[in-house]
Amino acid sequence: MRAMIVKEFRELRRDRRTLALLIAMPLLLLVIFGYAANFHVDSVQAAVVGPQATQVAARLPSFFDVTVTQPSEGQTNAEQLLQDRTVNVAIVTGRAPVLALVDGSNLFAAQSIVSVLNKEGNTVSTRILYNPELKTSWVMVPAIIGIILTFIGTIVTSIGLVRERETGTLEQLAVMPIKPSAVILGKISPYFLVAAFDMTIITGLGMLLFGVPFNGNAFVFMLGAALFLFVVLGLGVFISTVSHTAGQAIQTAVMFLLPQILLSGMIFPLDSMAAGVRWIGYLLPLTYFTMISQGVMLRGASLASLWLPFLVLTVMAAVVFFGATLRFRRDLAPRRRHSTVAVEPATVSSVHQAGNGA
Amino acid sequence: MTTTSASEGNPTTLLAADRVGRKFKDFTAVDDVTLRVGPGEVVGLLGANGAGKTTLIRMLLGLLATTVGEVELLGGPPDRQLRRRLGYVPQGLGLYRDLTVAENLAFSAQAYETAVPELPESLRPVADRLIADLPLGLQRQLAFLSALAHSPEVLVLDEPTSGVDALARAALWDTIHEQAEAGVGVLVTTHNMAEAEQCDRLLLMSHARLVAQGSQTDIIGSTTAIAIRTNDWARAFAVLNQAGQPVMLSGRDVRVADADADQVRAVLADAGMSAEVFGVPATIEERMMVLARGPKAP
Amino acid sequence: MTYAVRCASVRFGDTLALDNVSLQVEPGAVLAVVGGDGAGKTTLLRALVGQAQLATGEVDAPPAEAIGYMPATAGSWSSLSVAQNMDFVGGIYGLSGNALTSRRDELLDRASLGSSIDQLASALSGGMRRKLGFSLAMLHDPPLLVLDEPSTGIDPVSRIDLWRMVSEAAAAGAAVVMSTTYLDEAERAAHLLVLDGGRTLASGTLADVLDSFDGAISTTARPRRRAWAWRRGREYHEYWPTTAGVPIDAAAVTPDLEDVVVTLSMLKRHESELAS
């Protein structure tokens, strides 16, 4: 038995991916957890509108970081500011009691705001928009859509591609007259369609089971989803180029997936994370898709207001997808130093002619 | 100690099977096979795919129970104790690809509770290299070394030289013969009929049964082959192929197994061809092909 | 026209996988590339089909549509059935409809795979799987057929079937390059090329190779020079650089291909040992 133990340890020591998963990952997660996990919101961005905007702004507790003061604007504009997520809370003055409009789609911020405002008593009337009952499910479901797309895009796609490498059929494809782009697009199309289908089902179910609203433009949503899919599919292609077996592909994909779940703002709000860790969140594609899905579903946000996540996702999609496919093309090796010998037409085209005749 | 019928009272038979059979749910993998391997013998087990070789070997090793008949390993029914005195190299070599040469040897030496063998000259420079980075020839050498480390009395080798070049093959057979000369009984399976001449005795299995035993000539039996020599070999080939004869090329000659010379001449004559048609010795593969096809239609 | 690889060298890192190797094959002929693992067979065949980067040398090969390639690995898609495999490859080469079906059935029939047409490729035995791979490579009737170790590890009967299919292809006019570890297959080919450690040991027809052998082989029970002897059954074959060197009490034999290949490999090892 001792021989078995020694052998297993020796094999494990060499299996870098498993080691990374067993040792590095937990360490990383713990550190991130420690610095990222923070349900407590220290300050929120606020707007104050209405005739007494300036005076009210000065009297607000330091918890409110007033970034917008618009004495000449009213409630409509306040709501617009919230919808565009310029601020987390908009205070409308010029009426008694003062009206505080809170963005319910930013769950933890909203909860903190509500508890602070409750201390003000009757002077402030609080209304929560977009997620009036501050339901966690309403905020989670849009994020889960992103997780599922990531799952299909990275894990499932990478396995499908690695399979060709594992069985050696990639070599065969390389010699056949099929263009590398056809191979890649042909291979990921089914996953794209399945992911789109899955997404529709989950969204529908989320709305049905949890009453999550869909207040925005479906087209904007689908555009965001398509862009995000390109990013994660590109990641899947990339993972397949650095893996030799399905097992390795899964391990690598999991290493890409886990940080995204924890740091994309889905569980812990981005704003509350220590700055040292928050920047990681801003590098993750899921963070930006969640902005889009939450924005569109809960706030009915416009494409214009979501320009940042859309831009980032577009850039990511371009870089990741094309970078990965270039790597993949390399495996379908280039043909070099090759002088093509003319072939007698009879031999090759006879079969084609027969085929055309059918 | 009782002498079982399998060894027929011969205490030095190392491996024995007596009218052994194995049935699975819907088919018979091995049917009525009797064989012996004695000390110092190199016995070759031949057979097409599905002939039953692997099942037979698993029964001889005690990894699979027989449904009929008895199997004996070193005088008794095969069990873990007796297997300690056996050396086995499976087709897949049984080496750990992510361990080095030295680590593999250490593991198997520990498992057999024997001393780690000294590395031969060819393996010394790669003692710390991973198996995955070794060429096949060296991997096979290592697998052999591992199997021999505990000085087994019987060796069972499954396709020991597959994929390896002629010189390395010769070296491996050197080792096998050395062991045989030291008294070890060796059972080898191979798909390479050129290796048949390396064995003292051959066993040919087909469709679960043992159909021939003995020397190469015994194995080939009454199978014949015809060679056709003509300049227009491509046409001769096509004509005979059309006529349903099992043809193949051999250099520039066309070769037909198990055919009648007159029939072949007739077919060629019909096509307006004349060629030299003569009988040649058949090969073991041709015998196996004939067996695989089954009885010819009258 | 002749397809060829001329003076090719291929480097992987600091290893020279191929060192100045040439091959040539004409339509209707089978060229067997012989050697063990690591000899460079796969690299040479990949160079022929344009999959290996040459450090030096040239390749004369037709475009992708005119090549049928069967890699040393599976050569077919495991989770597809035999028919689906054929349909997929047929589609890539522009075959469809009745033409595809009839060609497919014809090839499967010749390969004795007709009854397994709906079985998954992963459920086929090794020999049957190779025959499927061969049929896939033949599907579009290519003028150049390149097969990488189609017979390694395959049972003798399937090997005969494969050889017959190769013969058919050659008889129908294709140029066939086939790598193998089996010397008896090399003996059956029109031309052979023997590789060892990336270099050419011998090439030409079987007669050429045997004729060009310098020296003598004796068969003996007790070899004089152990380093130059190897087992053939219970006896040894021993190499002598000249016929005169053969001792009187040893019987000389006509060298066969195995004798030639083993001797040339030994000479090559000896040379590199002296050089280092």
Structural commentary:
The complex is a heterotrimer of chains A (358), B (298) and C (276). Helix content of chain A is 65%, strand content 9%. Chain A has 358 residues and is an alpha/beta fold. A 5-stranded mixed sheet of chain A has the order 2-1-3-4-5, sandwiched between helices. In chain A, α6 (136-167) runs parallel beside α9 and α12 crosses α13 (307-331). In chain B, β1 and β2 form a beta hairpin. Chain B has 9 helices and 13 strands. Chain B is α/β, with parallel strands linked by helices. In chain B, α3 (101-112) packs parallel to α4 (136-148). Chain B has helices spanning 53-61, 80-83, 101-112, 136-148, 166-181, 216-220, 233-242, 261-270, 284-293, and strands at 15-23, 28-37, 42-47, 68-73, 86-89, 154-158, 185-189, 201-206, 209-214, 224-229, 247-250, 253-257, 276-281. Chain C has 276 residues and is of the alpha/beta class. Helix content of chain C is 34%, strand content 28%. In chain C, a hairpin with a 2-residue loop joins β11 and β12 (235-240). Chains in contact: A-B, A-C, B-C. Chains B and C meet through α5, α7, β11 and α9 of B and α5, α6, β11 and α8 of C. β6 (338-340) of chain A pairs parallel with β4 of chain C, so a sheet runs across the interface.
Write the layout of secondary structure elements.
The complex is a heterotrimer of chains A (358), B (298) and C (276).
Chain A: H1 2-14, H2 16-36, E1 44-49, H3 53-59, E2 64-70, H4 75-83, E3 89-92, E4 98-103, H5 107-118, E5 124-129, H6 136-167, H7 169-175, H8 180-210, H9 218-241, H10 246-263, H11 275-281, H12 285-299, H13 307-331, E6 338-340, H14 345-357
Parallel strand pairs in A: 1-2, 1-3, 4-5
Antiparallel strand pairs in A: 3-4
Chain B: E1 15-23, E2 28-37, E3 42-47, H1 53-61, E4 68-73, H2 80-83, E5 86-89, H3 101-112, H4 136-148, E6 154-158, H5 166-181, E7 185-189, E8 201-206, E9 209-214, H6 216-220, E10 224-229, H7 233-242, E11 247-250, E12 253-257, H8 261-270, E13 276-281, H9 284-293
Parallel strand pairs in B: 3-7, 3-8, 5-6, 6-7
Antiparallel strand pairs in B: 1-2, 1-4, 8-9, 10-12, 10-13, 11-12
Helix pairs in contact in B: 3-4
Chain C: E1 3-12, E2 15-25, E3 30-34, H1 41-48, E4 56-61, E5 67-70, H2 82-92, H3 97-110, H4 126-138, E6 144-147, H5 156-171, E7 175-180, H6 183-188, E8 191-196, E9 199-204, H7 206-211, E10 216-220, E11 229-232, E12 235-240, E13 251-253, H8 257-275
Parallel strand pairs in C: 3-7, 3-8, 5-6, 6-7
Antiparallel strand pairs in C: 1-2, 1-4, 8-9, 10-12, 10-13, 11-12
Helix pairs in contact in C: 4-5
